Amino acid sequence: MLPIETFLNNKGGNVLYKALAHPLAAERAAALIKMLERNGPVAIYDPDDAIRSFEAFHGLGDVSLAGYFVQKVEALGKSFRGREAQPVSHLGETACATLFIASFEPERHQNQLRGQIPDHAACVSFADIKLPEDMLTEPRRYLSPLNFATNFAFFRDGSDSHTRLVTANYWARYGAKNVSIWCRLFGGDGAAVASWREPCEVAGQSIVIDSGDIRSRFGLPPFTGQLFLHATGIAGHDIMKYVLVTYGDRPEVLSATHDANAWPSEFYAGLPAPREGESVILWLQNSHGRAIEPGEIGLSLMGTSRIARLDKRIGPFATLALDVSELFPRARWPAQFEVHAGKHVVRPRYEVVSAAGRSRVAHVNVERTDLEVDPSLPGLRDVLGKGYILPAPVLPPEQYVSLLLPTPMSTAQRALPVRILIYDAQGRQVAERRLGNVARDAQLAVNLTDLVGRLPGFAYGHAELVYDFDAGREADGWLHALFRYVERKSGHVAETSFGSHMFNSVVTYRSEPQSYSGPPPGLSTRLFVPVGGANVETRCHLIYPVSKRWKDHSQTTLNLVSGNGTQVAQTSLEVPSSGSRLVSMSEVFGSDMLSAAGPGSYVIVRDETCRLFGYQGMFSREGGSFSFDHTFGF
């Protein structure tokens, strides 16, 4: 595992990680190391314990070390490359040609060391790998989170498979004026094949990056690689969020996934095993400028100890397609895998390909290593009501089969005491299934459609996965599941996964009900729903989950926005408490209004009275294919 700190749930993302791992930093680090090799011996001053992270990404080649120096007395006793840490007060006694200060703020440290730096020693630092100033939102504070709103996207364009990234300039609502997205496309071998900027200065302007357009613009051959995105000139959010649509020239290729998680993790989970006649391809995309060596990444069946290691090398920023059957040829759905990723890859995608040529792309989720059982939760039922809820649609049963697969998402979860509640669109509970204390290694997929059976009047609704403290007492609030939807007629499948939150309760517990724009409770909604083209119908399934009693109905508006950020139309609807609404945008706004909104249009679902949870998808008007994934908010 890489010895780096990337993300902590109580602190957020580590900006130093992003500054060191940036692709442009990787290019400059290579030149810096060559210079250090020529100008040794080198004394390293490591005031913030950052040199190991630098070495993890970039190495130090054949640099000759004169000594390793620290500022904190507590760091004495550590060593680096065989050199015992010395107090920096001894620096002047060292014969070195170059002093390497492991900091992006070398001037401050040089001022502190005035008179102690050996005569004739040149000074270099992390400042030598800084990004150009025109890529910085806050140039005066290099390690500001706003300087590193970055992310990766799976990006492919071939004879019958394309990708389209869609988002919007949501930073403008926080005061940003000159937003742009710096993009770099890496081919499958990790080589940078194109770099460009996407301007998006207008508030609410949509950002659409289509693989076919990029291929044509730069004269590229077919590719399967990754797109690196760096938003500049931003405000409010330091996260690059997007929807990624995978589509083909045939309707059999259509899916959607999203991302707002830009930090590599030690573990990922929720990777399904294939059904008979399927292949599950895990797309391993190296997020760093150093190679992933054989054995550094592996898979294990959930709840088991055997790790099958990948014996292949993945070059810097390169992409490798791993068929999970290479490592586990007998594993079948509903088995699932843990990905032992070693912090080498940002949340990877997987692709499920059927024998009939249908394919869909989804993502695994970060498996946390810092969670412990919360002994307070079982005794708080009267105060918190249902507490943590994981909601998901139950699509119209005559057309779709809806499935739920519980997915352990913490290394500490040995069992999940859970039950499933099903509500109709009006918020009436119509079914329940107690799953008991589900073991970590259980292979249990629940057919939600079977639970509603032939209930009279059940057109659609939603399921809620909640804790069942009569079955077990171990809970940590981190419930996750994979939801799979199968169209009966065509057999086309879409799937998505997510975790639980508390919803719509004025009583707060720790950080719940979560709010993205202030302290809890989070009692408002702003969801992003991209509108598809003429051949697809855009639908949104809005769910009103309630942990404790809240307002009887939502007061929700749907706002149709054109690609240039102008609001074209608005309509309103009510969602009953514990109910849901399956909304067709063509029925709500009409085809003429959607046409007037034009390419790149989207809908913002807004509610200031409650927090809704949403799923969005594009459904082929000819039938036979659809995409479906949960939404995100700004």
Q: Given the C-alpha coordinates, what overall shape results?
A: globular
Q: What would you call the structural class?
A: mainly beta
For the largest beta-sheet, the strand count, sense and barrel status come to: 6 strands, mixed
Strand tally is 42
Report on this model:
By secondary structure, this protein is mainly beta. The protein has 4 domains: 7-129, 3-Layer(aba) Sandwich (Rossmann fold), CATH 3.40.50; 144-259, Sandwich (Hypothetical Protein Tm1070, Chain: A); 267-366, Sandwich (Hypothetical Protein Tm1070, Chain: A); 377-630, no CATH class. The chain contains 9 helices and 42 strands. A 6-stranded mixed beta sheet has the order 5-6-4-3-7-8, with no helix packed on it. Strands 20-19-22-17-25 form a 5-stranded antiparallel beta sheet, with no helix packed on it. The protein is globular, with a radius of gyration of 26 Å. The mean pLDDT is 95.
Give the helices and strands, then pairings.
Elements: E1 7-8, E2 12-13, H1 15-21, H2 23-38, E3 42-45, H3 51-58, E4 65-70, E5 79-80, E6 83-87, E7 98-101, H4 106-112, E8 122-125, E9 149-157, E10 162-168, E11 180-186, E12 192-199, E13 206-210, H5 211-218, E14 223-232, E15 242-247, E16 254-259, E17 267-272, E18 278-285, E19 298-301, E20 308-309, E21 319-323, E22 336-340, E23 349-354, E24 359-363, E25 365-366, H6 381-384, E26 388-394, E27 400-406, E28 415-424, E29 429-439, E30 446-447, H7 448-452, E31 461-467, E32 480-487, E33 493-499, E34 501-502, E35 525-530, E36 536-543, E37 556-561, E38 567-573, E39 580-584, H8 585-589, H9 591-597, E40 602-607, E41 613-620, E42 629-630
Parallel strand pairs: 3-4, 3-7, 4-6, 7-8
Antiparallel strand pairs: 1-2, 5-6, 9-14, 10-13, 10-15, 11-12, 11-14, 15-16, 17-22, 17-25, 18-21, 18-23, 19-20, 19-22, 23-24, 26-31, 26-34, 27-30, 27-32, 28-29, 28-31, 32-33, 35-40, 36-39, 36-41, 37-38, 37-40, 41-42
